[in-house]
Each structure stands twice: as structure tokens, then as C-alpha cells.
Design a protein that fits this description.
16 helices, mainly alpha
């Protein structure tokens, strides 16, 4: 693609020609091409995430292979813990590198190899053996994802301007969602054997990650000054010194309900038909497609406002669903599908708002530390909170959803105290 065409696409998507004054001249010149590379690489990664979703696709696959509830129950905790908790360990290595794009590209390649391994296990093994092998490969995939997460925000901050980062992430999410919607429609159509379709989708996810790594490798990234600090000590020092960072992490922790709630929402009425794999994937993908770009653009104006709106939206959906359930109306057609759709819109708002807020609130030399500390703490909250809420759900699913709703409203209130970090 010519430089002129790239510039025109960049101008059309961002609707601004004003460079970010905090970026060096070379980075400003390379921004249009880098902006598009972020969309393509992150979009392919988002598509891969949807094709191998542990909550939906891998849960179905392990059930189909007869792995047992124990291994199915490990999928989400392993995925979340592996993706978030190692970041304080891997980030010091990233901080010592002059170019950080190689970590994201390498992490994408490892995720692709892990996904291919999962598909091969699905073809050749069954029972507890299949469960153990897939969990081990998912753990490797999750750790590779943690490397990507720890490096991405720093690279994004260096290669895309302040007022355009949310747009890039929103476009990437929407692009990936189109492919996931097609996958969901194929599952719902009844065309072909569902097992064959799922295995093919996991192989496609592997190819997407490999391609995304190749595209990200071509980013034009300026060299960074290597950092030799003790990131663990420095990060927790930031937690003591930065009240805005503490408020952000607490807000993000209270918003975990938007990520944990979907399975509990479905449990409210297993006879509703919403448990079909295709319907679940479709609801999630449509929510991402219709909301991610809007959330991204709004995040470039005010990520603080996005967190407030997403918290109110998620809390409202969950509280309303509990009320409808107590009234006996959740068995009615479309009630739970609409609730799941609304919840996923709120969840994508949380994702866009928290990512943009974190990148824009941190100084360039603090982004990596902010990211690692935030993700590690929230990873611990997810693991601990997930176990507690799973125990409560054995007594009352509506109680869990109600608590998630209250937490979201609390997060929205806390977010009002976050600073407006976007440029006017």
C-alpha cells in the first residue's frame, strides 16, 4: 500500500491530522502505517481469541471429548491467571529491551503454536488425557498472552498518538468480531459436523496468531532506553505514591463482574436454549462489533466517562436480569439473549476504557510498570473472586449476579474520581 493511500485511510479513520506533540518527529511520520498495522495485528488476535474462547469453545470441546468437569472447570482460571499474574516477572525483561515489538510478535507466535497443539490434541486424544494436555497448552498460551499484554501498551503509546489509541483498539475489536460472527452463524446453521467445525476454527485461530505476529514485527518502533530497575519494588512503590493508580486498579477490580457474569447469566434458565454454543458466540461477537469502535472513539475523548458508562450499564443489566428472574420472566423468549448482549456491550466498554485510561494516564517511562502492576493485582482478584463467587453460586446464582451489579455501580462511582487524561 502506498504512503499516500495509507495516509488517506489513516485520516479517514481518525478524522484528525493533528500530530501528537509528545511523539518524536520520526514516530509522527510513521504513525499512519503503524496505526493500520495495529488494527490488522490486534484484529487478527481478537479473531483468534473468539475462535478459541475458553468459556465457550474449549468448554464445549472438553465436554465433547469426555474430559470431565474437573478439567472444564480449570479452563477460565488457568486462562485468566496465566494471562495476568506473570506480568511482574516478564516485564523487567521487556523493560531492558530497546525494541519491545518483538515480545508481542513472539508472544503471538507462541499463542499460535499452542492453539495448533490444542487442535491436534482434540483430534487425537480424549478423556482425562485430552483434558490435561489442553489445560497445559492453554497455560502456555496464557503466559504468552501475558507477554503480549505487558509489552503492547508501551508499544502502542510509542507508535500511535494520544487521541487515536482508543480508535485503533476499537477498530481492531470490530474487525475481529466480524470473523467471530461468521463462525457463530456456521455453528448455528447446522451445516457440517460441529466437532469438525470447532477443530477447524482452532486451527484457524493458530493461523491468525501467526499472521498477527508477522504484521506486528513490521511496526516502525523507536528504540527505548533500557531500564534496569527492580520493577516489582518500583511498581508497588508507584501504588503507594500514585492515588490515581490505586483508584484505577480498584475501579477495574470492581468491574470484574462484566467478565465473570456470562456463565452465571446462562445458568439462570438452562431451558431457554441460550446454552447453544453458536448463540453464545454470536451474542458476544455482535456486542463487540456494534460497540467496540464506538467505545474506542469515546475513549479517545474521555476514557474516564467510558468506565462510568460501562459500569452503570453492566450493573443495570445484571440487576434488571435478577429482578426479571425473580418475577419468573427470564424463561420468556429473547430475555436472556438480550441480557447477555447488553452485558457484553458493557464488558467491551470496560476493556476499551481501562486500556486507554491506563496508557494515557502513565508517563512513557511508567507505562510498562503501570500495566504489569495493574494486571497482576486484577489477576489475583479474578482468581480469588472467581472462587468465592463460584461457591456462592452453589447457593444462589441471582445473589452472585446481584453482587456483580452492585460492584459495577460502585466502580462507576469510583471512576468519577479518575482524572481526565485525554488531550482536549
Amino acid at each position: 500500500m502506498s504512503n499516500t493511500a495509507t495516509q488517506k485511510i489513516f485520516d479517514g479513520l481518525t478524522r484528525t491530522k493533528d500530530p501528537d506533540p509528545d511523539m518524536p518527529d520520526a514516530a509522527q511520520k510513521a504513525e499512519p502505517g503503524n496505526f493500520l498495522r495495529h488494527i490488522w495485528s490486534l484484529g487478527a488476535s481478537k479473531l483468534a481469541d473468539g475462535l478459541i474462547d475458553p468459556k465457550l469453545v474449549l468448554s464445549w470441546l472438553l465436554t465433547h471429548l469426555g474430559a470431565g468437569a474437573f478439567w472444564v472447570g480449570l479452563l477460565v482460571p488457568v486462562r485468566e491467571a496465566g494471562a495476568l499474574m506473570p506480568q511482574l516477572l516478564v516485564t523487567p525483561v521487556i523493560s531492558r529491551a530497546k525494541l519491545r515489538k518483538y515480545f508481542w510478535a513472539g508472544g503471538a507466535v507462541v499463542q499460535g503454536a499452542s492453539a495448533a497443539g490444542i487442535a491436534l490434541v482434540g483430534l487425537t486424544q480424549e478423556g482425562a488425557v485430552a483434558g490435561a494436555l489442553i489445560i497445559a497448552l492453554l497455560a502456555l498460551l496464557a503466559v504468552a498472552r501475558s507477554v503480549c499484554s505487558a509489552s503492547y501498551k508501551d508499544v502502542l503509546g510509542k507508535t500511535v498518538g494520544n487521541s487515536r489509541r482508543g480508535t485503533a483498539m476499537g477498530l481492531a475489536s470490530s474487525t475481529g468480531s466480524v470473523g467471530v460472527i461468521l463462525f457463530a452463524l456456521v455453528l448455528m446453521s447446522g451445516f457440517g459436523d460441529r466437532y469438525v467445525i470447532v477443530i477447524a476454527a482452532i486451527f484457524l485461530a493458530a493461523a491468525c496468531w501467526l499472521a498477527s505476529g508477522a504484521v506486528f514485527f513490521r511496526l516502525d518502533e523507536a528504540q527505548s532506553e533500557p531500564a534496569e530497575t527492580d520493577l516489582k519494588r518500583a511498581s508497588f512503590g508507584l501504588l503507594r505514591q500514585q492515588p490515581q493508580l490505586r483508584r484505577f486498579i480498584l475501579t477495574r477490580s470492581l468491574l470484574i463482574g462484566t467478565a465473570l457474569a456470562p456463565p452465571y447469566l446462562v445458568l439462570l434458565d438452562s431451558a431457554s436454549g441460550l446454552g447453544e454454543l453458536g448463540a453464545l458466540v454470536l451474542a458476544s461477537a455482535l456486542a463487540s462489533l456494534l460497540s467496540s469502535f464506538v467505545w474506542g472513539r469515546l475513549s479517545d475523548k474521555s476514557s474516564r466517562l467510558v468506565l462510568i458508562l460501562a459500569g452503570c450499564g453492566g450493573g443495570g443489566v445484571m440487576v434488571a436480569t435478577v429482578v426479571l428472574h425473580l418475577a419468573g420472566w427470564t424463561a420468556a423468549p429473547l430475555v436472556l439473549p438480550v441480557a447477555l448482549f447488553g452485558l457484553m456491550i458493557a464488558h467491551h466498554g470496560v476493556r476499551q476504557g481501562r486500556n486507554t485510561q491506563l496508557v494515557d494516564m502513565a508517563d512513557p517511562d511508567q507505562r510498562t510498570a503501570y500495566t504489569a502492576l495493574s494486571n497482576t493485582i486484577v489477576g489475583l482478584v479474578l482468581i480469588g473472586g472467581g472462587a468465592v463467587f463460584a461457591g456462592l453460586a452453589s447457593f444462589s446464582v441471582p445473589l452472585v449476579l446481584g453482587l456483580f451489579g452492585v460492584m459495577c455501580f460502585g466502580a462507576a462511582i469510583l471512576a468519577t474520581g479518575l482524572e481526565q487524561v485525554q488531550n482536549d
